[in-house]
Design brief:
The chain has 135 residues and is an all-alpha fold. The protein has one domain. The longest helix has 27 residues. The model has no long low-confidence stretch (mean pLDDT 94).
């Protein structure tokens, strides 16, 4: 059973958590690992290093859209391939993300959370909903 009084706020919390996660992961790649370091990571896992900047830019743009609630469900959908790539990159490390080099638990969980966001919607306080109501 869904509590229709509180569901919009639950969806909002999910949207804020996902948007924040994407922004912090982009910041991690920019300021901790650096883009050249991320390129090396991609190459070490058989992925094209040229994907580094597009991934970082998608994480920033998608994270902002999700956080603000502007085409956020579409952004979650567009970002799913990044989570699939992260899952593949960490698959050999085992389940738990605290394993050496990180396991696949976290990207799979985020993929499921993204699917829930896509199905559930943006919730309360989404900017796109306010813009649509004003029009």
């Amino acid at each position: 059973m869904i509590d229709h009084r509180t569901a919009p706020y639950a969806a909002t919390l999910l949207r804020i958590a996902l948007g924040t996660m994407w922004l912090t992961h982009a910041a991690l790649k920019l300021f901790v690992f650096t883009v050249p370091g991320f390129q090396g990571f991609l190459a070490a896992h058989g992925m094209p290093p040229a994907l580094a900047w597009p991934v970082v830019l998608l994480e920033i743009g998608g994270g902002l859209l999700i956080l603000l609630g502007v085409h956020a469900r579409t952004a979650s959908l567009v970002l799913l391939p990044i989570l699939a790539g992260a899952t593949l990159a960490h698959a050999a490390n085992g389940w738990v993300f605290s394993n050496p080099n990180g396991g696949w638990e976290y990207p799979v969980f985020l993929g499921v959370a993204s699917l829930v966001h896509i199905l559930l919607g943006d919730g309360a306080f989404a900017l796109r909903a306010k813009a649509a109501a004003a029009a």
